[in-house]
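ok trying this again, last paste got cut off
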Amino acid sequence: MVRYGRWRHLLAVLPLVGALTLLAGCGMFRDDPKPHDVGPVSTMPSGTSTHTLVIDGQERGFRLYLPANLARSTGVPLVVMLHGALGTGSQAETAYGWNAMADREGFVVAYPDGLSRSWAVSPDCCGPPARDGVDDVAFIQQLVSTVADQLPVDRARVYATGISNGGMLAYRLACDTKLFAAIGPVAATQLGPCPSPAPTSVIHIHGTADQTVPLDGGPGKRDNDGTGRNPVKIDGPPIPDLLGQWRKTDGCDAPVTTASGLVSTSTATCPGGRAVELVTVDDAGHQWPGAAGPRPEAQRLLGLDPPATALDATETIWRFFDTHARTGG
């Protein structure tokens, strides 16, 4: 009887876990949470260190990675990597390969933690932060300011990338701030108003078979219409239309589309050295292409999508970031 009760509880919570895990981009079972050490960024050694900020009276944590060979006397890029729902900064650091890229290319990576493992990107998404009106934009703004004040960050080369709910926050940051030279959302969409964004370079990666954040827009299979204690309302536009909006914002030329195997890339060049690029991967689901992917038992139990192997999203996004610094105008 006790065993039956435990299994009944497990079956009751699996739908919610599955919903938020898909928004996390298949990283849930790779988390290794640790308490944050409070300390100034200026004393940070090479490698990963953990830090806290206080935003609206609430302590917020982030991890920061510095390559051992980082040039600390000249301006270096900063990449903010935003985990998906049910993810963490630690999970994102493990799952998506940004530390290895930073070692190779010489930049700093920040991995912030969302409250309740999610980000508020609209009044209806996602999870408790949306329900409670958490100001995640203010948190990321303060994180960037703090790191840039303490390290030789080139403020013209600050970038945000993220998967699913984290990619949605990347769009929110581009809508509400002027901090970022470029954003790189993966398996995400733009939610909420974006009336007058600053011109920003955008690279967006999406699987054509994504059922959680559909390429064609509208609610995904995990949408709950923004109701309950964990609101998840995903009603964004078709992704090609969304990129069209950013081409208009950036004053771009008409896009040129190329294809290589399962990967199609639509690129528009824009004034000021900016660009807007949509990369689609045929038959790919809701995941980060090129990542290690979920453990087999998690994939089977929760119906998670395995990462596509036709593209390395981290490499692709960094190559875009590396050639798009913020310019005037």
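PB: full thing came through this time. Confidence is low (pLDDT under 50) at residues 1-22, 26-38.
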